[in-house]
Amino acid sequence: MEYPINKRKAKQSNLSKKRPKLGHSNVDTLPWKTVSRSKEAWLGAEDGILELEEVEGVDVVYEETEGGRVAKFNIANDGDKHPNSEEDQGEAVAPEANARNDEAEAQSDELEQEIEPEAQALECLPFDTANLLPAWQSYPLHTQLLRSIYAQTFTAPTPIQSRAIPLALSGRDVVGVAETGSGKTLAYGLPILHHLLSRVRGSPKSKRTLKALILCPTRELAVQVSSHLNACLNEVSLDATPSSESVLDNGKGKSKKKREASEPGPSQAKSKARSPPPVSVAAIVGGMSAQKQRRILDRGVDILVATPGRLWDILEEDDTLAREIKNLRFLVLDEADRMVQAGHFAELDHILRLTLRSSQQEDTDPEFKELRKGKDVESPAEKEHMQTFVFSATMSKDLQRNLKIRKRSKPAKTKPASTLDDLLLRLDFRDPEPEVIDLSPEGGVVSTLKEGKIECLSADKDVYLYYFLLRYPGRSLVFLSSIDGIRRLMPLMELLNVKAFPLHSQLEQRQRLKNLDRFKSTQNSILLATDVAARGLDVPAVDHVIHYQIPRSADVYVHRNGRTARAMRKGFSMLMCAPDERRMVRALLGSLGRDESEISDMMVDLHMLDKLKARVQVAKQVDKAQHKVKKENYEKNWIKEAAEAMEIQLDSDFAPSDDEDADVPTKKRKDSAKVGALKAELKRLLAQPLLAKGISAKYITSGSRPIVDDMLAHNHHETMLGVMKGDAADELVTAKKKKPKKQVVHDEWNGFEA
Ligand SMILES: Nc1ncnc2c1ncn2[C@@H]1O[C@H](COP(=O)(O)OP(=O)(O)OP(=O)(O)O)[C@@H](O)[C@H]1O
């Protein structure tokens, strides 16, 4: 959490005029409120603001204790002039909360956004669906959602949306399988939001009870789903600024203009933060402050998007939440198959058991019995109405069939679930026959995706990768199987001036989100990721997916590829295949019903490759030399520091001898000189133009292939002279003809409008 520092002083002076009241409060019990942020302050902002919160009417006092200075908080009584009243418009409160013992909290970034009361008023405004969103006319969605769909220029539902939304709205359970990037989130999200926006809410002061639980396999996906749903609510609120007519205005290019015009100013943001949102969505994921997430839950949310691990941690201590989950209105499993792979099986199993009807619950499980004790307070009718949605881009046909014909008898009581099929078959669908919608393309290949492969030695993969990145600039997501591989490639890419960001499970969550956001906003960059990024992540403009190492299963291949070619955009995926990986590739494609020869080889300019090889070799040497110096320094310092801390004299075996001591500066100088020389060499190589064979940079009208014509036609490559600009997909050696693909059921959807 961060606060605008310039605002802090003014706030403090206001506060200091007030008389502190009795009673010290714990920082967690203060009445924190989320402050709406402008889009510029989103995840990628340089200062890393992930979420702002404000607290009003709190005075900070310091107490000297034996353990040092401690900040305490006094809440002013209501009679006091509100420090954040209209006079202080635009101020965000900045109590000396930074001083508190809650560092973890500063790193939390759950997304809980609120929309202002005007949005509720908008509900009554008519929306001209027939003219503005003709393709959505037959979907009886809440007008606020239609406005948001319009503002986001989703002119028509995607095929999975057009099939799933009517069923979900009519109360059915849905199992949806559709290609990556085909809009599955809103296929289940819109019916849930519609239900919650349409229901009459009790007093705004009453605590919300959880209505929908969306389980996601990864933290990033959970955060993304929650943002996606919030965007559907926020668009409404943004449009609710004075010129709400603009929503009804049938102008072209409306969306951008509208958003700009309606960007909330600080004072608006403040007023928004004060009113309860009609629907609140929060993400609860691991790697962020559990304390704060509990606080959000204590305040109450309507929709919870969570990863099973963190949710189960919280549930073990939070009986109220467990009770709410037992009475859910909607349960969603997004990418359920991945959740099982991610090692969250047990947690998922426990959570799902809470959603079973009493008649199906495990009476034999003492832990579960304990959770159930005396908590079944809601009417059974409400529980009967729970709708279950299971969505994925990959789900075996067998499992789909089994889900459909599954017997409605009690699930086996004795053992916990052991496989995904087992687990899904235990889901207590209230619908006697959940509707299974399977729109997955044959072989898992999205129609707008082109695939290629490069066969090379493992040792040469770095050079081929570098070649590909220079040859086909754009946004590339590079998948590796190990974190060590990412750690090795990161410095290499940096030395070669390739803008690279890492994403793996050992990075702090805040850093993960930040890197992802930087990748999203940097046009020519790469994300070096493990399969933590394979599922569900929606970065709209990923040009290439590169499998630096072969995915371990066909599903992972499909999901990795799904990070490009989303929403009917073009995309390219490239397999880098070492000789010892060929068998794996064959097996992987075989399990998708495909043949290895269906994937074309990439054309590679070997002359250019040689030049790049020289750069990569020197870059590796620089990295190695730098690493050696760092390691030596670290080891030396570590022993010395440890000895100093323990106040002991170093043994002669460890302490450098006088001779060695004398040698140290010389050795150091030598090592640094070596690094310097290698760096200079690399700089020289990087500065050299990359010329294709037979090209002259000096005489652009001569040489065996004059490049002047390409230049005049703006067709020349930016970094490789003499090479034509082009897409990777255009540079494939023709492959064996593919089997004709199954026709997509709904082909009227053409993705985003340009
Ligand atoms: N009706 C629509 N028209 C155009 N774009 C849409 C529509 N609905 C959703 N989108 C956009 O399509 C993109 C992909 O959506 P989403 O992330 O829900 O796909 P997905 O099917 O869940 O993908 P994955 O299987 O990879 O998780 C998002 O950027 C979303 O905003």
Automatic annotation (TrEMBL):
Motif interval(s): Q motif: 134-162
Residue ranges occupied by any Helicase C-terminal domain in the UniProt entry: 462-607
Biased composition (Basic residues): 1-22
GO cellular component: cytosol; nucleus
E.C. code: 3.6.4.13
Record key words, sorted: ATP-binding, Helicase, Hydrolase, Nucleotide-binding, Nucleus, Ribosome biogenesis, RNA-binding
Keyword Iron annotated: no
Family, per entry: Belongs to the DEAD box helicase family.
Protein name per UniProt: RNA helicase
Phylogenetic placement of the source organism: Eukaryota, Fungi, Dikarya, Basidiomycota, Agaricomycotina
